[in-house]
Write a structure and sequence with these properties.
This protein is mostly beta strands and 514 residues long. The protein has helices at residues 11-17, 126-134, 280-284, 356-359, and strands at residues 2-5, 64-65, 68-71, 79-88, 90-91, 94-95, 103-112, 115-122, 166-170, 173-177, 183-186, 193-197, 207-214, 221-227, 233-239, 245-252, 263-264, 268-273, 276-278, 294-296, 302-308, 315-319, 323-333, 336-344, 373-380, 385-392, 396-400, 412-417, 426-431, 437-441, 446-448, 452-455, 464-472, 477-484, 494-497, 507-512. Strands 3, 31, 32, 33, 34 and 35 form a six-stranded antiparallel sheet that branches.
């Protein structure tokens, strides 16, 4: 384990300390069952397989039909899976430059009595509506400038949401989000865009993240984000079940960076401030996109900020430098906090020269050498100590739990695994108490997305089904696989085959039938 200490640093101390983080060695637990790709294994100039480029190939939207089912859908799996991700990458001959970008396409897979119905639709954001009417790209996005002329992008982004990252049921509302702008309310039956849920009062300049957290005990909904200015500020807002704003949290970050997700326990909010530096100057001058203004500086280490859910000053901890897309879960543990997440030593699939999520858009493989390993922080709040352990050195992404145990001590995690960098080919069930794993690999010509947990009615924790979207290379179409969450290694009990492919889809949520 790596042991890092802090002396309950104040914000001023932290601001003066950045860039002077000392790192120790690391103890590795677990076995690399499928393995990650080691540096040098990929050829940045090699052509990508045609089927893999479908992840960045647009979908038309507006579909509604009964798909073919192979196998037998569980009789107790009744409800709807909702998914969201970028579905449109071109306008007027101009193409988005990065796989993690594009107008939001919401999908609905309704399952009932062993039957299935599929539909999809684009979120009707102001950006989508205006560009759809004109047939031209009118807005810049977070990875692609409005045009090649810098004066079209002076001042950076215009803040137009694409609502293409997450979709959540939140106290009777189905909300689609990305990392700027409001939440868009989606009709859970028709997928029509109903309207928007505004940001917290006085926070119009805050880029609230697409990821949010729902406390299964209190019913509180927690959102968090960042605000760029002379210094970067971190914000969080906690809503009561009535969606009345309860608590607002704000503090200065010790560094100007990009973050994507955060963690919450019963008592604290945890931010992993990894060294993914954001330089605003070229961005504001219109010379670079937001994504191209990011630089990885792993040697600077990570700063972990912990703040009470009731507000107040954060405590900062030093940690080894690693990039986090997604957290698994965090919980209070006596004197401290345990936080599990997927971390990359270098996010070479995302930023830097020949990053695979960019080169795929032009038909090349690119860099994706560093695996997303499963990691655990132990934060001793009294002693001011952080210890990191690598639980599994294989390739992982999209970690998921049974959301009924969120913010409390979890036993099991589910995640995509295997494959190349952050493009996975299998699913894993990881027992964090015993260290035992179950893995099912769909094959090297399958891309596997986030496993969404659907609880068995009346079942115990971690009894349920995993519903996962897959891109099938041989047929160049997509399907949804259903697996028993307690028997992942047995493979799918059913596959629901679509008549077409679906581009990369990031996140989803299960809504059980009433």
């Amino acid at each position: 384990m790596r042991d890092h200490r802090t002396n309950s640093m104040t914000r001023r101390d932290a601001l003066g300390r950045v860039g002077r983080v000392g790192l120790a060695g690391v103890a590795v637990g677990g076995t690399a069952l499928l393995g990650g790709c080691l540096p040098g294994d990929t050829n940045p100039h090699g052509a990508a397989p045609d089927w893999l480029t479908l992840l960045g190939t647009s979908e038309k939207g507006g579909r509604s039909y009964a798909p073919r089912i192979d196998g037998t859908l569980p009789a107790d799996l009744n409800g709807a899976l909702f998914r969201n991700g970028p579905g449109l990458f071109e306008r007027g001959g101009h193409r988005i430059k990065h796989l993690l970008d594009g107008d939001g396409l919401v999908q609905r897979l309704a399952l009932s009595d062993g039957k299935a119905h599929y539909s999809n639709a684009f979120v009707q954001t102001p950006k989508f509506v205006a560009e759809d009417a004109s047939g031209q790209r009118l807005h810049g996005t977070w990875t692609t400038r409005k045009s090649d002329y810098f004066f079209d992008s002076i001042g950076g982004l215009d803040g137009s949401s694409q609502a293409g990252v997450t979709i959540y049921p939140v106290h009777g509302k189905l909300l689609a989000r990305d990392e700027v702008g409001p939440s868009f309310e989606i009709d859970p039956e028709t997928l029509e865009t109903r309207g928007t849920i505004p940001l917290p009062p006085g926070h119009e300049g805050v880029g609230f993240k697409a990821h949010s957290k729902m406390d299964p005990i209190t019913g509180e909904w927690i959102i968090a984000g960042s605000e760029y200015g002379r210094v970067m500020k971190i914000h969080a807002a906690i809503y009561e079940p009535s969606l009345k704003l309860k608590t607002q949290i704000a503090f200065e970050s010790p560094r100007m960076i990009y973050i994507h997700d955060f963690m919450v326990t019963e008592t604290h909010v945890v931010f992993v401030l990894h060294p993914c530096d954001f330089s605003p100057w070229g961005f504001l001058a219109g010379l670079s996109s937001f994504k191209d203004s990011l630089t990885w500086r792993g040697e600077a280490g990570t700063v972990v900020a912990v703040v009470s859910r009731s507000g107040g000053e954060p405590t900062f901890f030093d940690a080894p430098g690693s990039f986090m897309w997604h957290a698994l879960n965090a919980f209070d543990d006596g004197a401290g906090i345990v936080a599990d997440f997927v971390g990359y030593d270098v996010p070479d699939h995302f930023i830097g020269e020949n990053a695979m999520f960019e080169t795929l858009m032009s038909g090349r493989l690119g860099n994706a050498a560093y695996p997303g390993t499963l990691r655990r922080y132990r934060l001793d709040l009294q002693a001011g100590r952080l210890m990191e352990e690598v639980l599994d050195t294989a390739t992982h992404e999209f970690p998921m739990i049974d959301e009924r145990i969120a913010m409390s001590r979890h036993k099991v995690g589910y995640m995509a695994t295997g494959g190349l960098g952050a493009v996975n080919s299998g699913l894993k069930r990881f027992d964090l108490e015993s260290g035992q794993t179950q893995v099912f690999d769909f094959g090297e010509m399958t891309q596997v997305g986030e496993p969404v947990f659907a609880a068995k009615p009346g079942g115990d924790l971690d009894q349920g089904w995993l519903v996962v979207q897959c891109l099938d290379g041989p047929s160049k179409t997509s399907y949804f696989a259903v697996l028993d969450a307690e028997a992942v290694d047995a493979g799918p009990v059913a596959r629901v085959w679509l008549e077409h492919h679906v581009p990369i889809s990031f996140h989803g949520a299960w809504s059980a039938a009433a």
